[in-house]
Write a structure and sequence with these properties.
The chain is of the alpha+beta class. The chain has helices at residues 2-45, 48-54, 71-80; strands at 55-62, 68-69, 84-98, 101-114, 117-132, 135-145.
Length: 146
Amino acid sequence: MRNHLFSIVFLLATLIGGMQSAAAQSGDEAAVAQAVESLRKAMFSRDVKGFEALISENVSYGHSAGRIENKQEFIKAALANKSVMKSLAFTDQTIKVTGNSAVVRNTYNAENELDGKPSTTKIGVLLVWTKEAGTWRLYARQAYRL
């Protein structure tokens, strides 16, 4: 009887611990999704404070053309861009959280206008986020042609 009771308590503790772990991961995935959405908004509106809050000091930001930028270079280039962004959407997004790291894949879809000429951008993006002092920050980004 005593062993049977111990087995039941152990099983319940394992199940509850597993549910708490899944709930925490779901919470982390939701937090990462929110961080990605905040980055999208900062990119669309060219919000320097948004960039500062979301991007790690150690970021490696890779463009689909092969250019690699650090945090300051990325923000400076984003703010200096002469094109007018008409729309920006991230689609086909997946998020995988492991501990304090998250890998996000999505498709970057933008409509722009430069000197009255419309253009579109559709590229694949790999984002690596890390939790720094309890906040999800972009640690690495690599875009690639689809």
